Amino acid sequence: MAYHNITVEIADYVALIRLNRPDALNALNSALLAELATALTEADANDKVRCIVITGSEKAFAAGADIKEMSEKSFVDVYGEDMFADSTDTILRIRKPIIAAVSGYALGGGAELAMACDFIICAENAKFGQPEINLGVIPGIGGTQRLTRFVGKSKAMEMTLTGRFMDAEEAERSGLVSRVVPTAKLLSEVMAVARKIAEKSQMAVLAGKEAVNRSYETTLREGLQFERRLFHALFATEDQKEGMAAFLEKREPQFRDR
Ligand code: CO8
């Protein structure tokens, strides 16, 4: 499919999806979100993809939902069409790991998109924020829920009610991002992480993602049971035999996703 608001490159079993509306700091309009949903779905189904990276430009991962597109809409419009629900829920159905590589602004829907990925690596120039309050609204693609789980109630509440931005150092300290890297090296560092994930047994990677995500959805007791059952299930794979044999034989494992 031809994309106009994103680009997609696949190499070394990693799909790199770049948000590409430079004139609007990658603001998320319905066309971009629909293309992103399609690209994610295609990458998930593509045997040549084992990990997905979403990134933006150096100046902006995404500066939020497109204010121009939203400004004239009524309640009947946005509630009636359930604005962005379909496209933004797609990310929840993707089974392969998705890394957000954030440089510059990740604001509003941009921060929410990054948080919907499996983890975030950011550049030193990154700025995260939920400035919707300045527009007379609140976050609408998970900001109040996911930011609170990442950084706790106090910071999430302050950011949601004041619109203040969080810089990269605070984002790492607060657990919003897994790490901060020099801005010029963001993509090379993230692609190295993605390639490392792509080398693992895909069965184990899918199970690991599923188990960590389950911790957001259930009680500790149920989550522990879910994890244990997946752990047991992986003993039905050839990759478990290969991984453990390779360790004992002091060699690199040759995983075959079986
Ligand atoms: N929407 C549309 N256009 C935007 C957006 C945006 N979110 N952000 C920036 N742009 C455009 C600007 O209008 C400008 O365009 P033009 O050159 O045609 O005037 C261009 O991008 C460059 O922007 P600036 O000149 O403002 O660049 P600066 O470097 O001066 O400032 C900022 C950068 C601080 C990022 C500034 O652009 C800004 O504050 N942007 C808006 C941030 C914001 O409020 N984001 C939240 C949007 S609301 C939202 O995300 C809700 C999500 C939930 C939806 C739920 C649906 C169910």
From TrEMBL:
Keyword Lyase set for record: yes
EC number: 4.2.1.17
Keyword annotations: Fatty acid metabolism, Lipid metabolism, Lyase
Gene Ontology molecular-function annotations: enoyl-CoA hydratase activity
Source organism, top-level taxon: Bacteria
Gene3D superfamilies named among the record's database cross-references: 2-enoyl-CoA Hydratase, Chain A, domain 1, Lyase 2-enoyl-coa Hydratase, Chain A, domain 2
UniProt xrefs under SUPFAM superfamilies: ClpP/crotonase
Catalysed reactions, as listed in the record: a (3S)-3-hydroxyacyl-CoA = a (2E)-enoyl-CoA + H2O; a 4-saturated-(3S)-3-hydroxyacyl-CoA = a (3E)-enoyl-CoA + H2O
Example GO BP: fatty acid beta-oxidation
Keyword Acyltransferase annotated: no
NCBIfam families found in the cross-reference section: PRK05862.1
Function: Could possibly oxidize fatty acids using specific components.
Record-stated family: Belongs to the enoyl-CoA hydratase/isomerase family.
Protein name in the entry: enoyl-CoA hydratase
Lineage: Bacteria, Pseudomonadati, Pseudomonadota, Alphaproteobacteria, Rhodobacterales
